[in-house]
Amino acid sequence: MATQRAAAVLRPALGGIGASCVRARCAPRLQFSSRTLCIQAARPRKLSPTIHHSVRNSSSDSKTETVAKTGLYQLHSKYGAKFVPFGGYSMPVQYSDLSIVDSHNWTREKASLFDVGHMVQHEFSGPGAEAFLQLITPSSVASLPTYTSTLSTLLRRETGGIIDDTIITRLPDKFYVVTNAGRREEDRAYLEYELKAWKEDSSNPEVEWKTLENQGLVALQGPLAAEILSRALDPKATQALKTLYFGQSMHAVIKDTDAEVLVSRGGYTGEDGFEISIPPYATEAITQFLLDSAKDELRLAGLGARDTLRLEAGMCLYGHDLDETTTPVESALSWIIGKERRANGGFHGDSVILKQLKKKSEGGGVGRRRVGFVVEGAPAREGAHVVNEAGEQIGTITSGCPSPSVKKNIAMGYIKDGLHKSGTEVEVVIRGKRRKATVTKMPFVPSKYFKAPASK
Description:
Layout: H1 2-10, E1 52-56, E2 64-68, H2 73-78, E3 81-86, E4 89-95, H3 100-109, E5 111-115, E6 120-125, H4 129-136, E7 148-155, E8 162-171, E9 174-179, H5 184-200, E10 208-211, E11 216-221, H6 225-231, H7 235-241, E12 249-253, E13 260-265, E14 273-278, H8 283-293, E15 298-301, H9 303-312, H10 339-344, H11 350-357, E16 368-375, E17 385-387, E18 393-402, E19 409-416, E20 425-430, E21 433-440
C-alpha cells in the first residue's frame, strides 16, 4: 500500500487524520466579502481537476501503482517540495527551506500550512443521515449542535473494530465527514455496503451520500494561526473568529474572492489551528494568498513534520495505532462514545464495546490499552516489542520518533491491561537490545487548543 511505502521511506509512519474535537456552543453561519484589501491577493482561478499518472514505486513486488495529485501539487513543486507516495497521492514530505525538525519547531513557534487535500471529504444528507451515522459510529451525532464537530470511528458490525477514524461536523442541512486517504477504497466499500443494507429496510428514511472530489483541504496550525487567518477574512468574520472555539466551524468568504470556505477550528498538532475546506477552483489561489499574507510567520510543512507533531500531541495514525482489530476502548478513545450511547447502544459492535466499558469485576474490561512511552537510549519504531523484566512480550510499539520538542525518544503503542498506568517501567527491544522505557501519559506536549470557557 502507498501508506506503507511512505512509512518505509520516512520512519516513523506519517500523517494522522486530525485533532479530536469536543462539543461546544453553536457557531453561527457566516458569509462575508470585503471591498478593502490590506495585502494583494490573487482572485481564485479555476484549477485543473486532479491529475492521475503512473509511477513505479520502490517495493519488493515492483508493481506499478497509480498515484494522484492534489490541487496544490504545482504549488508544492514551486516551493521545492520533496514528494513521496502516501495514501494514494504524491505528497510533500518536506520543503527545501526547512528540515523536518526545523519545520516541526516552526509550527510550534509560529505557524505552518499543511496540504491535507488527499483526505476524503464526504457529505451525508437527507432525513436519515443522522440515524445512519448514529448506527455506524458510537458518537452522539443526534445531539451534536450545528457547526460543531466530533472525532469518531466507523465500526465493524460484529466486533466493534475500527474501520477508520473520522471527523463528523453537523452543518445546517447536512453532515460533513472527513476520512483517511489511505482507507479510501476500504471506506468506500464499507459505506456502500452499509447504505445498501440501510435502504433494504423500507422503514429507514432516505440518506444521500456525496464525495467531494478534488475539494481542497488545508490545515493552518500554530500559535499564530488565528492571527494569520483573521487577516484573510472580512472584519466581521474576523470578529466571529475570536469566539470560534475548538471543535466549531463556520462558513466564510476569503478577502477579494467569491469562494466560500468551511473553516473548522481544530487540528492534529496540539496547537491552535484551523482546517479549511476550499472549492477546487480556488484551492491554489487561497493557499498562495495565505502564504503571501504572512511571509515571515507562515511556511508550508510536509508529512515529516506532520508526523512528529501528531505523535507529540498523542494523535493516532490509522494502519499503525488503529486498525480493524482494535476497538475505541482499547485505543483509549472511549471518550468519543456518548453518554446516552453507553446507556442505549444502537451502534455497530455495541455488544462488544459496551461490555469492554464495564469493570473487570462486572465481566468487562480489555486485554490491552494504548499508551505513551518515553524510551531511553534509542528511538523505538513501529513493531518493536515491549517486554517485562523476564523478557516476556507485554506490548507492541505502533509509532515512535525522537521528539524535537521534549528532546526525548517518545512512542505510542499497546500494553497489557494492568500495566498501562503512567510511571510503569518496562523495556523495549530495539535492534536486539533491551532499552528502558516508562509508560507515560499523552499528549507528550501540552495542548494549546482554543476551547470555550468552562461553564459555571
